[in-house]
Amino acid sequence: MATVCKTWAPRGQTPQIPYRYKHDKVSAISGLSVSPRRHRVGLYYAFYERNIQRADVCEFLRHLLRHLRGVVIVIWDNGKIHRGEAIQDFCQRHPRLRLESFPGYAPELNPDEGVWNQTKQALANSCPKDLRELREQVSAQVQHLRRSPSRLRACIHNSELPPFL
Question: Is the pTM of this model over 0.70?
Fold first, then answer.
């Protein structure tokens, strides 16, 4: 179902947003980074046109380790995809990676939720004609957000994490 939000229209003319209901989707994995000394904020992400698997999570963690120096602390939820032997093996092979979990169901603590809330809001009422166009729209919006340190920092400040910036 398309994301819909309030919009303007002439009085008495309800806006119509046509869309084709298909089960195509774009799955995303992402994370915000904060450098320990300079407090620079970064956004890393990857898209898939299928469900994300543990191997994809490991590849994303490998990507983070290639781009971030020093100890990398990943704070994430307790989703099934974040647990298991493949993830544990990966952590044992990469000692500078530390994984911490949010408590139970706590999206209010996750700054990454702010990234996707902003992205969904910006794309509300859009109507991509196919999966390629959907991926392009999402990618363009995330790139736009990535170039805005103040908006990324707002995702962190608006979460209920203890202040660390």
Answer: yes
Pair of tokens at residue 123: 């794309």
Length of the chain as a residue count: 165
Calculated CA dihedral for residues 147, 153, 45, 53, nearest 10 degrees? -170
Residue 138 corresponds to which tokens in the numbers above? 């999402």
Domains with residue ranges and CATH for the chain: 27-158 (3.30.420.10)
Q: Which residues contact 156 (CB under 8 A, 6 or more apart)?
A: 32, 34, 41, 111, 114, 165
**Euclidean distance between CA atoms 70 and 94, whole angstroms:** 11
Separation CA 101–CA 84 (nearest Å):
14
Q: What is the pLDDT of residues 29-60, one digit of tens each?
A: 999 999 988 889 999 999 998 999 999 999 99
Q: Residue 50's closest CA among 86, 85, 81, 18? A: 81
Break the chain down into helix, strand, coil percent, rounded to 5: 40, 15, 45
